[in-house]
Amino acid sequence: MTKKVSMVKKFIRTAIATAAILALSGCATSPKEFDFTPKAVNESDSFAMQVLKSSYNPGLLFDMKDTELPEDSYQNVLDYGTSSAIGLMAGGALGALKGLGWAALFNASSHPHLDYIHYIAYVPADDIDITDYDAINSYIKKNYLYPALESYVASDENKKLERPVEILDYANGDFQIKGDACYALPYETHDNDTCQMFWNQNTLSIRYATAETGLPFTPSVKANRYIVARIVDLRLRSSVLLKHIKTDMMYAFVPGLGYRTEHLSQLTDNIIFEDTPSIIGKDASINFFITKKK
Q1: How far apart are CA 119 and CA 239, in angstroms?
Q2: Helices H, strands E: what count in the chain?
């Protein structure tokens, strides 16, 4: 199979999966179909898996497992994830991981939604109801995603691009932008270099959580309860935000992005991986789906 034919098949798969996830994440899903009761995290899972599972609903269960590593390898990977936050990613993300001697955890190809970035957000819910999608979407965009976008726009990696990203409009949380992020998928074309980063219908409420049940971390924003929500980025344009998350109340599930990694790394400064999924959090901390072998 030629590389060109392979890429065409991947594009077709993306189009089919896009239609499927729009149905899953949008208004077609009634709130009454979900159990909003807080769900306990499994402390034997990796932190990355705890975050990901907290966003699961009956329509989205990824075929993924943690990888057990010997103590030395486990510690090396943990140290690598921490070092990324302070800019020590020498040689590119994928190369650095392989240098640790760790056989990368490959994504399961059986689930089409593993092609996308999923933002898993925890929203203080003392004054917001879980069925108020507009309020939830607005809170996440205003408090979590917009600060990340502002940080990226002001960053050196953006300024060095041929077409630096600019914010054109923030009306209704849609994020109208221009610049190289509009071409996160290399086959995209746009009039006047402008595009939309997020779609409001891709925000989905999952369940409630409390500090005692359902949160894999100690939240910096205190509330009696929280809403776990997920925002799906089908077109990967928000990959530019990954290194610029400024809150511990939101994380990004980033799949192994395969053939797109080289292209996206030009935008993201090597924080994504070809075949290794991760959970990215505040200040570019990277959490892998690993546990220490007992």
Answers
A1: 11
A2: 8, 11
CA separation for the pair 273, 257 (Å, rounded): 6
Positive/negative CA dihedral, 142, 146, 151, 154 = negative
Contacts of 266 (CB under 8 A, 6+ apart): 161, 180
Q: Which residues of 238-257 are buried (b: 16+ CB within 10 A; e: fewer)?
A: bbbbbbbbbbbbbbbbbbbb
Residue 7 confidence (pLDDT) above 70: no
Q: Report the relative pairing of strands 203-209 and 226-233 from DSSP bridges.
A: antiparallel
Answer whether 41's CB lies under 8 Å from 217's CB: no
Q: Which residue has the tokens 């800019």?
A: 87
Dump pLDDT digits (tens) for 37-84: 999 999 999 999 999 999 998 777 777 888 888 888 788 788 877 765
Question: What residues are paired with 9 via a beta bridge?
Answer: none
Rounded-to-integer distance, Cα 156 and Cα 179, Å: 15
Closest CA to 181 of 149, 142, 224: 149
In whole angstroms, give the CA distance from residue 220 to residue 281. 13
